[in-house]
Each structure stands twice: as C-alpha cells, then as structure tokens.
Amino acid sequence: MDKENIKHDELEGENISESGAPDTDGKPDTDGGNRAFTQADIDAAVKAAIEKNNKSVEARIDAARKEAERLARMDEQERQDEERRIELENFKKEKADFEAEKLKIFAERKLQAAGLPVALAATVAAGDRETTQANITALAETFNNAVAGGVKAKLAGKAPRGGAGETTESDRDKMKADIEKAMKRGF
Fold first, then answer.
1. CB 140 within 8 A of CB 114
2. How far apart are the first and last CA of the chain?
3. H/E segment holding residue 120
4. Domain residue ranges in the chain
5. Distance between CA 136 and CA 140 in Å, rounded?
6. What is the DSSP string of 3-39?
7. pTM
8. Between vectors from CA 153 to CA 150 and to CA 159, what angle results, nearest 5°?
9. pLDDT tens-digit profile of 121-161?
C-alpha cells in the first residue's frame, strides 16, 4: 500500500479482511466511505486540531496570568477581600445550580404524578416551586384538552343507522306479536 494514499475506512477500522489486510475489492461502500486521504490531508487536519487546542490553552493561560498580575498589585487585605469575593461568587453559582436541580426534580415528580412526560421537567421548571406548579397545571390542562380533542376527532363520524340497540316501532310490534304467540303456545 502506498504511504501517501490511505483509505479513510482503514483509519476507521472498516474494510479490513480477517487477515488484517485491507479489503481492496474496489467497490465503493454503500455509505460512500471509500474516500482516499493523502498523508498531507491527514497532517493538515491534525495540525488544524492542534492549533485550535493551542489557542484555547493560550487564552486560558493568558487570562490566568492577567489575574495573577492583578492580584500581585494588591496589598494583603485587598487580596483577601478579592479571594472572598471570588469564593462568594462561586458559592452563589453552585447554590443556584443546586436550586435549579432541586426544582427540576420537583417538576419531574409533579409531571409524573400528573401523568405527563417527565422529559418536560426542564421546560416547566422556572423560578420557584409556585411558578413551576402553575406551569405544570397549565401544561396538564392544555395537554388533556389536546388529547380529548384528538380522541373526539378520531371518533367523529356519522352515527350508525339502525344498528344494534335501536328499534323502530314496526320492530317493536313484531317482537310483541312473537312474544304473545310464544306465550299462547306455552313456550
């Protein structure tokens, strides 16, 4: 096999025979995966991925360096105050995340009790328990109305004519006469 021409499927582990040699029947795959990449294509893709990662790392390093320089310019009291402020911000964020998760669990339980899909919990969870409960109530009403409307639409149609249970006056007269005959004969 030419080192400059590597099949994409071989990189994915597909089109390899039991012996480990590439399957070279020449037929393209049904999913169109029989494309060839040169070593230069692969090198360019790897280089682009590395550059993207390096930019992200450099940005984080630069931000940390600036923060360290800012903290270094402060006196001890200012630094402690800043650290407390940062800790407080992190605590508030964690607390908000925790409260949001509790609200989502509350919504899941209420949705399940109402017979609604639990997957909607993130959608109806909002603000506080009262708002979430109001959202669930409104959703349940809308959902139930939509289901009832769908059922009515499916069942809508013409009423059956002369079906079972419906008798006309002539049918009643005939049945009455048959009963009287049977009674005269003594069953």
1. yes
2. 99
3. none
4. 1-15+35-73, 93-148
5. 6
6. TTEEEHHHHHT-SB-TTSSB----PPPTTS---EEEH
7. 0.45
8. 145
9. 999 998 899 999 999 999 999 988 998 888 888 887 766 56
